[in-house]
Design goal:
Length: 267
Amino acid sequence: MEIGLKKKLEDELILKVSRMKPVIKPTKPHKHSGYHELIFLSKGAGLHTIGDDTYEVVPPTGFYLMPGQVHCWDFSKIPEGYVILFKEEVLSLYPKAQSCLFEFPKQFNIAVDSVFFHLLDTFFTAFKGNNDLDFLTAYLNLVIIKSSPFAKRNKINAPRITKEFAAFKQLLNEHFTEIKNVEPYADMLHLSVKKLNEICKSAVNATAREVIKERILIEAKNLLTHTNRNVSEIAFELNFTDSSNFVKFFKGQTTLTPLGYRSRAVG
């Protein structure tokens, strides 16, 4: 079994807005590589699994998926709402929105009496009307800023995320399989290792090395849970020197062996 890779955002696009498909057929676990995904549902019911967590769909609600996160749907009622796909570069002129984005939990409730969905209707109409990217990006900025209070209500003690941390996370999503040391990331960001560690501590109370390990662990869990690849194959895909080093890393992060985690995860 392989993790499906769905490419909903064409190479030439960096932003796309679409309506949620009105179907209730369960989807297979899959991920979207290279872009972020915001999902806002005004109707529907069922379950949404993101990584190791399963959420009940109780509209009005929102979901946020980082690049590479595995997820799947199991609707029991036809969903209605919007899906916004975008590459991180589209927010380069909106550092506040970028900072807000990295504070979003995977799921957050939206106020029942909110006019938020009217904003989404307008954004969708603007996208379908082939408006300029600058115009559409301004709408995305507004959507993120407007939904940020909803996200914060569902996340206790939300960390302070800086644009430097957001840039680090972007680089990490692109290079975590081949670059596992802090120094190259600090160099690419034109920061000292000490400064990058300070930024990470302020944002998520972890060192840069711990943030890197967490990203590798997320991918390892995805591969163990949603594929039938053996430990050696996963170790190779994640660029560990051998399977024993991968097992040592995984056990150090979780106290479980990779196969022990797989056994628990797939039941």
